[in-house]
Amino acid sequence: MMNRILSGDRPGSRVLAVLLLAIFFGLALAPFLFPGIKALNVAAKVLVFVVLVASFDLLLGYTGIVSFAHTMFFGIGAYGIAIATTRLGPTWGALAVGTLGALLLSLLLSLAVGLFSLRVRAIFFAMITLAVAAAFQTLASQLSDFTGGEDGLTFRMPALLSPSFEPFEDDFLGVTVDGRLISYYLLFAAATLLVLALLRIVNSPFGRVLQAIRENEFRAEAIGYRVVVYRTLSSVISALFATLAGCMLAVWLRYNGPDTSLSFEIMMDVLLIVVIGGMGTIYGAAIGAVLFLVAQSYLQDLLRIGSEATSGLPWLAALLSPDRWLLWLGLLFVLSVYYFPTGVVGRLRAARARPPA
Amino acid sequence: QSEIRIAHVYSKTGPLEAYGKQTQTGLMMGLNYATGGTMMVNGKKLVVLEKDDQGKPDLGKSLLAAAYSDDKADLAVGPTSSGVALAMLPVAEEYKKILLVEPAVADSITGDKWNKYIFRTGRNSSQDAISNAVAIDKPGVTIATLAQDYAFGRDGVKAFKDALKNAKLVHEEYLPTNTTDFTAGAQRLVDKLKDQPGRKIIWIVWAGAGNPFKIADMDLKRYGIEIATGGNILPAMASYKNFPGMEGATYYYFGIPKNPVNEAMVAAHYREFKSPPDFFTAGGFSAAMAVVTALKKTGGDTKANTLIKAMEGMSFETPKGTMTFRKEDHQAMQSMYHFKIKVDPAFAWGVPELVREIKPEEMQIPIRNQR
Amino acid sequence: MSARDLDWKPLALVPLLALATLPLVGSPSTWLTLTVAGLAMGMIIFIIASGLTLVFGLMDVLNFGHGVFIALGAFVATSVLGSMGDWTGSSELWRNLVAVLPAMLVAMLVAGAVGLAFERFIVRPVYGQHLKQILITMGGMIIGEELIKVIWGPQQIPLPLPEGMKGAWLLGDAAVEKYRVVAVLVGLAVFALLAWTLARTKVGLLIRAGVQDREMVESLGYRIRRLFIGVFVAGSALAGLGGVMWGLYQQSVVPQMGAQVNILIFIVIIIGGLGSTGGALIGALLVGLMANYTGFLVPKAALFSNIALMVAVLLWRPQGVYPVANR
Amino acid sequence: MLETRDLSVRFGGHVAVDGVSCAFAPGTLTAIVGPNGAGKTTYFNLISGQLKASSGQVLLGGRDLSGLPASTRTRAGLGRAFQLTNLFPGLSVLENVRLAVQATHDGRHRRGLNLWSVWSDHRQLTERAAAIVDSVALAARRDAPVSSLPHGDQRKLEVALLMALEPQVYMFDEPTAGMSHDEAPVILELIRKLKADRAKTILLVEHKMDVVRELADRIIVLTNGQLVADGAPAEVIASPVVQQAYLGVRESAAGEPA
Amino acid sequence: MSAADLLLELRGVHTHIGAYHILHGVDLAVPRGQVTLLLGRNGAGKTTLLRTIMGLWRASQGSVQWQGRDIARLATPQIAQLGIAYVPENMGVFADLTVQENLLLAARGARNAQQIDGARLAWIFQLFPAVEKFWHHPAGKLSGGQKQMVAVARAIVEPRDLLIVDEPSKGLAPSIINNMIDAFAQLKAGGVTILLVEQNLNFAQRLGDGVAVMDNGRTVHTGSMAELAGDAALQRSLLGLTL
Ligand SMILES: Nc1ncnc2c1ncn2[C@@H]1O[C@H](COP(=O)(O)OP(=O)(O)OP(=O)(O)O)[C@@H](O)[C@H]1O
Ligand SMILES: Nc1ncnc2c1ncn2[C@@H]1O[C@H](COP(=O)(O)OP(=O)(O)OP(=O)(O)O)[C@@H](O)[C@H]1O
Ligand SMILES: [Mg+2]
Ligand SMILES: [Mg+2]
């Protein structure tokens, strides 16, 4: 049964299985385990990023396409919801229109990008997507009548999902049941389903062909797989999942702007999460997202403690200042490449697979 | 409850780090000054919680929510960027707590995105633009504008244009925000201006990367074209040294306002940092003055409705003289300063000398919110 | 590529673009101003991109941290020039040069030295692995930027142009900024030096071979590691020089300035073709011209002119105009 | 029946395959020989679609395959192994073969376009792949990643992939190069078995004349891209073109450097 | 044979690749001025051994002696500079570079193509006509056999003391194999020592002086070529065939 849900892709390491279970239940019970708005926001962001990163993993880890335009689709999803609810009001219909419209746009764009990827070599493609993503971000801030420009859009959700909706008088297990909680569980359900779907896709015959293409595109073509078709399909699917992640983000934040969903910074975060978690594993997305987002969200708090503790040493204190949190994030980038070349998942699986010396 | 908790959400890091830090400095100095060094109002201690929005709207939004809810902040001050501010406005409404906006400038904060929990001590774009218009608006003057091609630039130019009464505006040039080479834009401006009679001015409103003042290197003088612009932080005014005599209107320069509050702030700042306070320091200071004045008025009561009642129409002293929260949209009405640049080797920047204080009454700042 | 079979088509691109826009612009003096400014801008872009032709084009290191050396060079220049107020304040050009030359040298030295450490700790573990290069050099970039903030502070620092380089010379009705002329001279010097070194020595060949099969180059008896370090350091030093030029052009520096030019210089290298100094020069000139022409004719489109240019060139030559390295 | 009509390709000024017309009947093994650089591999590339022909046609069973991409030609029944090993280095031996098996069978997995079923459910694919791995004597290495295989084993896997495709036309490009003397016979035995199946067309590029002599039903000779001889093995080997240009029956040896 | 006559000597060499133990104590002696053949079935460890000599894998135990000096810890470039030329199994041809540039890199003394020893080049052109024919072409475009010729040409473009070649004959037409045998014979006559891995026993037999047979990461037999060639039983037991 479990095996079927996971599409036969077992974690392949006991530690990993325990970790995944902990993450799953931690997220499922987050509102009860970790009280407070901040914690809930972090948990929700993890849910969104798990989907986003897993969708990117399909592209990068399984198909071997390096694209910097992934946040473009994420942004399209978020803008889809944002624009639709701004224009049509906070209704379920608007959510549906926004999601479908965004999916359609992503489909077309990813088709174009995917086809282009075959025309130029890999690094060039990566650099082109980088430029395209930057241009798209600028475009989004230029079309301010539509997108709210640099300032972005703030919008409302249908009553059921807005924070002011409180159906019950009493708290449930010490937590107020309100629209925010309902939104959280909507996100949770969506994330679970989407990740399982991705897991299924990468473990299908299709997924195996993608891996073959990653390994040796030329030979994949020679044994009868039309590489164009597979690559394009993979681009499209991953773009669609990213779009859905964008929709999730918008539902949760009730705000969207170019920096929120389109920035290069998010792209780098996604890349880093894939690598920390372990490329080509899907599970890595979950592990990486939790590790990274928790670190990112609480790094400044941690540094504050550190810099207070070292206030006697001005130089160290300056480096540990919470204002310099990015320095430590940068270090995280470097160290993760050093120490997790195959990601957490790869590490754990290798530990398991290594023959006793 | 013996504490009053004030959350200051600002860009402690990120592209606006330098600005945000000035605000924080000003805010703390202001609170100190307003409470006579006690940090107490009506027996309650003022506690400032710093929150770093990193210039990201989504982050600012969740930080504000966390501040109001997890940290039980009574009111909030900030943020640095307009985008963050706009994302934060609904949070104040949701939690029914005051958000005192400083220094984000977008008109829509006190315009169509406004709600009754929003106050602003910072100047808005219209105030900036209109004061500049008032400063250079003379009969016989021909003006062309140079602005960034996005909402901020276009709004600024529009407000500026609407405020012009006498001068003739012949061209609006908008360039991409990331422009580095201004030759093409300058050439277009020159083509439009050079054959005009009388005084010719290019009015620049620009924020961020790129240095539009480079257009002066194309030897605009030979066509008799001048450059005008508003004030800025001190490092940015270094390039003003190239434009002795340049006119414009600014929000604040430490040498301009003559009042006890400003003198106290400048003195305190020199004492602490060996340097004069800057643009945003004054803003933070003003915000602190507004907060303390309001709290004193309510006797330390932090209930939002009480505070709103106290603050609407409230006047308070700031380094820029007296400000008044306009009842309609809670925007602080304040003086602006018409300046002329003088080059003084003692300063690393072009020194703006006061030509004239533009009083709030002289500027018709439109009310843009629907109440 | 030897003189024997010099491929002239890309060379013709620059004058062609210039001539094609003449009727569109209309006024010859305006056109001249735009063209000269564009070419000079191209030269500045070439200088900041020149280091990347070595690091990315030849060594195949996708160095997203390249920009940090640009910023570093510029910040070092603020410190050096800041302490030489007398020389920069003078309106005699030679006195200005006496100030600017050491600033350039120190900037190159510092950037080169930091490049040495960067190679050792950031790049060395990831030769040949693009994805990891992207990540780790991004990390390096962030760290570098933050360290710049720790040392110089987060705020913008003015870097005023020396007096003698301010203003413009007039060519009829057209104005040519003096600084841009200086930039052209520096750019030509950098170009000549790079082109000569790569053409006259085995360095370029060895690097290209080393990228393809490092073990084989070592088996032939070359210490490829040292060579890679040397070239990386040279690339970083050139970036430092580029930073000085860019900072002086902008007349102010911010810690983010490196990140701001990152995409631009990658575009230049791609247009030029990997590993080609001449290609990078052509790419940079095209970018500079294109920005000015579109900026004048259709300012809205100026934003996308670089990308359009890159896509157009790649459709014509999918490897860039003068690919040397075949990757 | 595989046929090429006037097949040519030029690279710049160099004509690598020059108007080769030739038909290959099922049930025969044709050896293609010729000096290095004669155009043998290029000829294969043109037939299997790795290269686009400058002119000429490739027909399989009367169907014109010219201009179709390699994958389509493979699905139409053209299979080939590569001279320079060309595998999926990060995947295991079994997975390599399975991918090839999957590429041919229609069944439930629809040649990899099935996004929703679970790969490991297609048991018969695995079984078939395992059998092929066994047949090239790689069973012991089944789960090893290909990148860790010694060169000779990679050559065997190269052949295994071709076997897995079960095409109508088998093209072997020096299948035993780099294989040791107790391993090569395994591969040659496989080829011999294929020959017994009268429906298959087999093309073999090989420099080892003993192998050619033993296996071939027919030899064609390419030099400088042109078909210069075609006929029964004994006859062709004895011909002066082959003796001189190819086998290098020489007058004098090259001199030593100063 | 006295130690002084040995150019290269390996004693008890163990090599690990990652977690795998590949060589289990190999002994090998390469006498000066002779052709030593390394035989063995696929996966025996021949390539691993050559790479260990070149320092491309590190011996975890044992010694590699070059004229009595231990070189097991030297870096690859230093080992090469002792006077060793290496032709790897995958040929190691730089696909992007022209044939000329490939050879130029091997000519350590030359800064440009004109400075490569002309007479030697003429000799190479005669042995391997394709090298001359495709002099200005990217080596990656060559046919399999032509690449093999470039790889060997590169190893002999300048004189070296020791030539290590991993399966040079694979993919070569018989006439070129003859040329290569001639070339090696001439080099040997000129005093060059050669260590050769070869599957083509015809080739091996015509060149070899000494023979070492490997299996499972060990040397299982050493002796002279003549001895092996004359003993069919030994051949069968070691190599699974008769010559
Ligand atoms: N893509 C290409 N571009 C330019 N020339 C090529 C290309 N491919 C092959 N050639 C040339 O075509 C000729 C034929 O090469 P091919 O690989 O077909 O030879 P071959 O007969 O298989 O030789 P070998 O026995 O050495 O494998 C060679 O001279 C080669 O240099
Ligand atoms: N990179 C590697 N990782 C793991 N194992 C390896 C690696 N390279 C080689 N091996 C193993 O080392 C053993 C010896 O390989 P080697 O390549 O030395 O054999 P060989 O004698 O040269 O064979 P061949 O004649 O096929 O070239 C083999 O079992 C092989 O699987
Ligand atoms: Mg061939
Ligand atoms: Mg081997």
Short description:
The complex is a heteropentamer of chains A (357), B (371), C (327), D (258) and E (243). By secondary structure, chain C is mostly helical. Chain C contains 14 helices and 4 strands.
* Gyration radius from CA atoms of chain E, angstroms: 18 Å
What are the secondary-structure elements of chain E, in order, as H or E? EEEHEEHEHHHHEHEHEEHH
Order of helices and strands of chain C: HHHHHHEEEHHHHEHHHH
Fraction of helical residues of chain C: over 70%
Structural class of the secondary structure composition of chain E? alpha/beta
Question: What's the end-to-end separation of chain C, in Å?
Answer: 17 Å
Give me the number of helical elements of chain E.
Answer: 10
Please, how many helices of chain C?
14
Bound molecules: adenosine-5'-triphosphate, magnesium ion
CATH architecture descriptor of chain C = Orthogonal Bundle
Q: Which spans of chain E have pLDDT < 50 for at least 5 consecutive residues?
A: none
Sketch the major β-sheet of chain C: 2 strands, antiparallel
Number of strands of chain C: 4
As residue ranges, the low-confidence spans of chain C are none
Helicity of chain E, as a percent range = 25-40%
SS-based structural class of chain C? mainly alpha
Could you tell me the radius of gyration of chain C in angstroms?
Answer: 20 Å
What does it look like?
The complex is a heteropentamer of chains A (357), B (371), C (327), D (258) and E (243). With 357 residues, chain A is mostly helical. Chain A has 18 helices and two strands. Chain A has a two-stranded antiparallel sheet with strand order 1-2. In chain A, helix 4 (37-62) runs antiparallel to helix 12 (227-253) and helix 15 crosses helix 18. Chain B has 371 residues and is α/β, with parallel strands linked by helices. The radius of gyration of chain B is 20 Å and the shape is globular. Chain B starts with a strand and ends in a 13-residue tail after the last strand. Chain B has nine helices and 16 strands. With 258 residues, chain D is of the alpha/beta class. Chain D is built from nine helices and ten strands. Chain D has helices spanning 40-48, 70-76, 93-104, 123-135, 151-165, 184-196, 209-215, 233-238, 240-246, and strands at residues 2-11, 14-24, 29-33, 55-60, 63-64, 78-80, 169-173, 201-205, 218-223, 226-231. Residues 251-258 of chain D have low confidence and may be disordered. Chain E has 243 residues and is an alpha/beta fold. Chain E has a domain at 94-153. In chain E, the strands form two sheets. Chain E has a six-stranded mixed β-sheet, with helices on both faces. In chain E, helix 3 (99-106) packs parallel to helix 6. The radius of gyration of chain E is 18 Å and the shape is globular. The two termini of chain E are 27 Å apart. Chains in contact: A-B, A-C, A-D, B-C, C-E, D-E. At the D-E interface, helix 1 and helix 5 of D face helix 4, helix 6 and helix 7 of E. One adenosine-5'-triphosphate sits between chains D (11, 14, 16, 34, 36-42, 83) and E (134, 141-146, 171).
